[in-house]
């Protein structure tokens, strides 16, 4: 206010002076200058300044561009080949036989599951896993029938593996990958699954370490995993604006949930997500 009064007084004292030329408002100007580019590290930039930058790679996904391309290619193959084969296996194979093969393969996982529970300092869960293995290997006809999950035993299948053990000991997931024949995974989970698959054949030997057993077993196991997530894959493809990102986030959230069920301090409770390879899924 004082500055305005002073300007008026000076104007009245010099009547012969030309009146000041006032520039039109910026909105009425014929030309508009582009806004200055603000660099993130420029001096004077505060928390209130808006800085627009290019999209950066997601934390934990340093190979996002490569992974996204891999995802697109694998999804195309899945829709054209893997999906139809898995659904053909589901409809063509009699359900009792298909579930029997699944139960047989799950039963062979129980020693590795129990061993990892011991490494995680969960002896009670290890005993339950050993109990499942003993019951299903005998009363369940070599594991073809999951008797242990029924009354009076009430011992449901609870997946576990070296990836979870690594997480319980504070080893982070490492970089995220989307790989052929594996799908979504992390470096920690990829190493863990490799150890899971190698542990029992290395200890037992024949016939578990022979190609004529290992190849069909892995194929059947993979088909069952694909059948389990068929509904979720269709939902992501139909409803998601960014299927790759949503698949990654669902996988990582599900893994945190599975780890939280064993080591609460190392994970987060999550109610939904894509079943992961280390956890596979439940009955």
Automatic annotation (TrEMBL):
Residues 17-47 are annotated as: Disordered. This is VacJ family lipoprotein. The keyword Lipoprotein applies. It holds the Pfam family MlaA. Keywords: Lipoprotein, Signal. Belongs to the MlaA family. InterPro entries: MlaA (IPR007428).
